[in-house]
Q: What sequence folds into this?
């Protein structure tokens, strides 16, 4: 029996139009995320790794085969990514997260500029992140499907928010214009979910 499963997309393929098109969503979820789940299951099949949670696999990624790092990261990152987007999203966070962002970055606009810069300067495929680490909010990026929970990641902490900047996330609609994709992505952020992740991080 396969241990990990592709979680259902929490909305229809066209829910994030016009910012993210339906075909990109369908391929991204069913094919790309689907492949990460299948390849992760194959990588851990009939080994002691089958007993471990996804978080345990990531936090010790340096000790496991590279297929676990790549596909375990891919599974975690995309599971989070679908949840932190929503139809009629965007705007600004509220509550504790709003205060923390303003305290750390000076203003929401400055936070947005710094996250955008991280997303645009990540060379090749990867993710840009807002993470919570030891009392601080930090912006950074990781290559490929690495994520800040991994022991081998330079950027460390709990992922509060992450934007996928692999070409598969935007190329059908935006081609080479990563800057337009990133600018529009702010219109689909599910701040309720991102705020809930921040509150979860505070408890750890
Ligand atoms: Mn992706």
A:
């Amino acid at each position: 029996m396969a241990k990990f499963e592709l979680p259902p997309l929490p909305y229809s393929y066209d829910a994030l139009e016009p910012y993210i098109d339906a075909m990109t969503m369908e391929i991204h979820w069913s094919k790309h995320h689907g492949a990460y789940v299948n390849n992760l299951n194959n990588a851990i099949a009939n080994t002691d790794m089958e007993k471990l949670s996804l978080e345990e696999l990531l936090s010790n990624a340096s000790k496991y085969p590279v297929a676990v790092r790549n596909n375990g990261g891919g599974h975690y990152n995309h599971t989070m990514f679908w949840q932190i987007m929503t139809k009629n999203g965007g705007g600004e966070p509220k509550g504790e997260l709003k205060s923390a962002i303003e305290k750390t970055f000076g203003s929401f606009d400055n936070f947005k500029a710094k996250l955008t810069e991280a997303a645009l300067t990540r060379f090749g495929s990867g993710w840009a992140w807002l993470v919570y680490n030891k009392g601080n909010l930090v912006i950074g990026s990781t290559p490929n499907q690495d994520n800040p929970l991994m022991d081998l990641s330079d950027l460390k902490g709990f992922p509060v928010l992450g934007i996928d900047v692999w070409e598969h996330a935007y190329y059908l609609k935006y081609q080479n214009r990563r800057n337009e994709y990133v600018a529009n992505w702010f219109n689909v952020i599910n701040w309720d979910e991102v705020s809930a992740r921040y509150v979860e991080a505070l408890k750890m």
About this structure: The domain at 95-202 is CATH 3.55.40.20 (minor pseudopilin epsh fold).
